[in-house]
Amino acid sequence: MKVKSFLTTILFTGLTCCLALLVYHKCYASKTAYVEIKKVFNGFKMKAELEEKFKQVKSGRDKILDSLSFNLKIMSKHLNEQKEKNLNAKPGEIYQFEYSREEFLKLKNQHQQDNAALSQKYDEQILAQLTQYVIAFGKKNNYDIILGADGNGNLMYSKDTYNISDEVVIFINNKYKGID
Description:
Elements: H1 2-28, E1 32-36, H2 37-43, H3 45-84, H4 91-140, E2 145-149, H5 165-177
Parallel strand pairs: 1-2
């Protein structure tokens, strides 16, 4: 009888310990993971869409510059032909060429600045949306910490089992599409 009581006590104590460990692990153990920032950023559908939009805007600007450049080449060729024939170019033609060239250079510079600003604006939009989606992912999946690994030394090493980049890419793209 004493043996049976002793075994029951040991069994009860063992079960209690196991249950306590399980509760502790569920409630108090932190859930930590990391994402490869480049992989998540490049895998985000919003990035691909804004990248395509940027290419279209840039292409339109490049067409305008190509047209102006072509007109400048024609004007330059005409002025050079007159010079080779020892003909004096009309002052108005020279002025028009110089004016057109200055306008072309100003527009080219403006387009470069506009392209850089648009690219930066799109990147900021992507990062802001991406951050919101990663926060939602973390909350939905009960993560305490999600680190970002970008190769600059913030995260020097982690087991691959902590890498949730693929899961995050799927989640953010579904969220972006409106699938929840």
